[in-house]
Amino acid sequence: MNGKAGTAIRLVDCAKTFPNGTRALDKTSLEMRGGETIVFLGPSGCGKTTLLRVIAGLESPDEGGRVYFDDEDVTSQPIEHRNVGMVFQSYALFPNMNVGDNIAYGLKVHGVAPDKRARRVDEMLRMMQISELRERRITELSGGQRQRVALARAIAVQPRVLLLDEPLTALDALLRERLRIEIDVLLHSLGITAAYVTHDQGEAMAIGDRIAVMNKGAIVQTGSPREIYYKPASSFVADFIGTMNRVTGTLRGGALELPGGRIDWADQQGSGEMQVLFRPNDARIVEEAGAPLRGVVEQQFFLGDRTRLHVTGVADRTVVVETTEHREFRVGQSIGLRIEPGALLRLRD
Amino acid sequence: MRGRENRFLLLMVAPAIVVGAAFFLLPLARLAVVGATGKLGIAAYTAVVTNPQYFQALASTIVLSVTVTVATLVIAGIAGVFLERNHFLGREALISMLTLPLAFPGVVVGFMVIMLAGRTGLIGEITSTFGAGRLVFAYSIAGLFTGYIYFSIPRVILTIMAAAEKLDPALEEAARSLGANPWRVIVDVILPALKPALIASGAICFATSMGAFGTAFTLATDIKVLPIVIYTEFTLLANIALAAALSMVLGIITWATLALSRVAAGATAAAAG
Amino acid sequence: MRRTPYFWLQLAFTLLVCSFLLVPVFMSIVAGLTENFFVGVKSGFTTRWIGVVWELYAPTIFRSMYIALATLAVTLVVGVPAAYVLAKRPGMATRLIEEFLVLPVAIPGLAIALALIITYGGFRDFRTSWGFILVGHVLYTLPFMVRSVLAVLSSFNFQVLEESAASLGAGFWRRFFGIVLPNARSGIVAGALTVVTLSIGEFNLTWMMHTPETMTLPVGLADSYASMRLEIGSAYTLVFFIMITPLLVALQRYGVQSTRTRKGA
C-alpha cells in the first residue's frame, strides 16, 4: 500500500511479571523481519497473549526489557503512540458506532480530513468485500462480518505492525477455514509485519511465515511451519503440533529394534535403549509378508479423507498410523508397516 | 504508561472520596462523639436498653419491622412469582401499577393510609355502610403496619420477580417428573431458589422499616417508633447527645442487618451455585 | 392454554394487592379535585384547591425541581467517573471505596441528617442555604448512580473496547468520553432517572435539614397534611404525582429495558 516494506520489530530481554507476582513471560528476545508474519502458538497460559500485548504497548516489559520498531525504541511509548493495528478475539468493535464509523475511528483520532477519511473507509470496505454493511449497527452483524470490520478498522490507519489475538477462535469451523485463507492473502498483499496469536496449530501452519511455539512463559522453538512440524526441538513441541508417536526401541548394529520388527537406521550415534518419534502418516501400510514391522489393528477411525488406525504389537505401546488408502480394516487384523529412517526423530530431552 | 493512567483514575475517583469523607464519614464520627458527650456520657449508648421508655420504643420498632418484613415477603412473594411465571393480557400494566409507589416518600404513604383507614377513609366508609360502625385504624399500630407494608411491597416485588426470572423451569419439570405435587415443588424447588432474593429483600425491608420516619410522622400515632423518639429528643427536647446516640444505635442496627444479609445471601447463593 | 384454579386465585390476590396500592392514590386524586370531600363528589369538581396549593406552595415545587437537577449534576460529575474507576481497577482498594460510597444507603436518613446538622450546623450561611439540602440529597442518591453505572460497565468488556481505541491512537480522555461514556449510556440514564426521582421525593433527611426558606415539596406536603384541610393536602399530593409519574414511567422504560436487552444480547 504505502510501498515500503513493513516495520522490523525487535524485543530484547522482555519479561513480564504481574503485580500479583505471576510471571507471565520469561526473559524473551525476538526479531521479526519487516513484512513477516509470525505466529505465537501455544496452550492457554503459555504467555503468547502477554507477548503480543508487550509488542502492542498494552503491557510494559519488566525492568531491562526493550521493544524496538525498526531502530526506534518504543518501550516507554503507550499503545496510542505506537501506531499498531490490533484485532481482538472478541473483535472489540464499538457498539455505539456503525460499521463505517468504526473503520473511520482511527483516522479521525489521527486527524485525517473528513473527505479523505470517507475515501479510505470506502477503500477498506471494498477490500474486505463488505461495502453494503457501511451503515449497519455492530449488533446486526454476524461473527464473520464483525471480524472483517475489525480487520478493516485495524488496517485503515496503515499501522506499522498488525497484531491479531486469536482472531478466529470465536467463529465456527467452516468460516474459520475461509477467513484463515483471506487473512493469509491479505497479510502478504499488504506486506505488513504481523504477529498472530493462536492455540490452533492448523491455523499457525497456514498463516505463519514463522511459528514461535511457546510454553510456560517462554518461546521453546522458532522456525518455519515445516521445521516445527518435522524437526520439533522438544517433546513438548512434537506433542503440541499434531499427533506424534513416541516409542522406545533399542539401537543395535545399524538398526532400531522394536517389539514388532526392526528398521534399518544407519549413521546413528550411540547405541542401546532410546526414545524415537514419528508422525502417523510416516508409517506406510505394506504387505504383511516381508514387512519390516508387524502389528494388529486395535481400532480404526474413518475420518473421511483418511483412516486412522491404532495398532498394537509394533512397539511398547499402541502407535497411531494414518493412511489415505480407500480400504477398510478389521479389528484384530494383522498388518505390515514400513517407516523410512528419515522420518524417525530422536530428541535430546 | 500505567502510572500516568493511574494518576488520571485517582483524579476521577477523588471527588467521590472527598464528598464521602467530608459529608458522611466526618459527620458520622462527630455524631458518634457527640452521642457520648451529653449528660449521660457514654451511657447514652446503653440508654436504649436501660431506659424503659427508649427500650419500649426500640422493641416496638423491631417487632413492627419484623412483622412488616414477614408479611411483605409473603404478599410480594406470591404476587411476584405469579407475575413472573404467568403471561396474560394486562400483565405489564399490572407490574407498572404495583411498582408505582416505589418513589412515594414516607409522608405520602402516611397520607395514603389516612385515605384508606383515616376518619374519612374508605374502609370506615365500607364498614359503616354495613352497619358495623366506622372502622378507623390509621392512627394506631395497625395504621403504621399498613403504611410500612405499602412502601415495602413494590421494592420486594421487583427483587422477587428478578429472581424468579432466573428460575430454571427444567428444575420444576424435573421435580414434577419425579412425582412431586405442587406444594412440594414450592417447598423443594421454588423457595430454595428464591432464598437469596428473599434474604436480601427481607433485610432491605427490615432496615427501611426500622429507619422509616415520614409515615409515622404523618400518622402521628401514640406508638413511639425509634425514629420518632429521636426526632422528638432532638427538636422538641433539644437533647442532642441522646438523639445522636440513639441514631447511632439505629444506624448500626440497619447497617448490620444489611451487611449480615449480604453474607447470608452470598452463602446460600454460593451453596446453590 | 387452560388456566388452573390456582391461576385465578393468584390473579385475584395480585389484583387485591394492586388495589391496596392504587385505591388510596385515586381517592386522593379525587379528593384534590372535589369541592368538599366530606360531602363527596356530589359537591362538584373544582380546581380551586390546586390554585390554593399553587399560591401557598409554588416555591417548594420549583425548589424541589432545581435541587433535584443540582443533585443530578453533582452525582453525574462525581458518581460516573468514580464508577468507571471502580469498574476499571477491581481490587481490594476499589472494593473498599465502593463499600464506603454506597454505605449511606444503609443508614437511616434521620441519622445522616443529624450527623450533618451537628457537624455543619455552625456554618450559618451554609446551614440555611439550599446547598445544605443538596449535600444531603447527593449523599443519599450517589450510591444509586454509582451502582447503576457500575452495573452496566460490568455487563460488557469495556476494557477491550478501550484497548482497541488506544491501539487506534486514542488517548485516555478521548477513550473515556468517546467510547466508555456512550456505551455506558443506559446505566447513566437509569441512574439519572433514579437520582431525580429520589431527590424529588426525599423527606427523611430534608425534614430535619430544612429551614423555612429551604422547604421542599415533600416537606411542604407534611406541612399541608398537618395544618391544611384534606382537599388541599390531596391537591398538593396530586401535584406531586404529576411530577413523579413521568419519571417513574421513564424509569420503568429505560431502567428495566436496558438491562433486559442486554441480557438478551
Rg of chain B, please? Answer: 23 Å
Low-confidence stretches of chain A: none
End-to-end separation of chain A: 46 Å
For the secondary structure, the number of strands of chain A is 19
- Write the CATH architecture name of the largest domain in chain A: 3-Layer(aba) Sandwich
Shape of chain A: elongated
Shape of chain B: globular
Write a concise synopsis of the structure shown:
The complex is a heterotrimer of chains A (349), B (273) and C (265). Chain B is mostly helical.
Textual characterization of the structure:
- The complex is a heterotrimer of chains A (349), B (273) and C (265).
- Chain A has 349 residues and is an alpha+beta fold.
- Chain A has helices spanning 48-56, 99-109, 114-127, 143-156, 173-190, 201-207, 225-230, 235-240; strands spanning 9-17, 23-32, 37-41, 66-69, 72-73, 84-87, 161-165, 193-198, 210-215, 218-223, 245-252, 255-258, 261-264, 272-278, 283-286, 293-302, 307-312, 319-323, 334-339.
- In chain A, 39% of the residues are buried.
- With 273 residues, chain B is an all-alpha fold.
- Chain B contains twelve helices and no strands.
- The longest helix of chain B is centred in the first third of the chain and has 34 residues, at 2-35.
- Chain C is globular.
- Chain C folds into two domains: 1-46, no CATH class; 57-264, MetI-like (MetI-like fold, Orthogonal Bundle).
- In chain C, helix 2 (48-88) packs antiparallel against helix 3, helix 2 (48-88) packs across helix 9 and helix 9 packs antiparallel against helix 12 (230-264).
- The interface between B and C is large, with 79 and 81 residues.
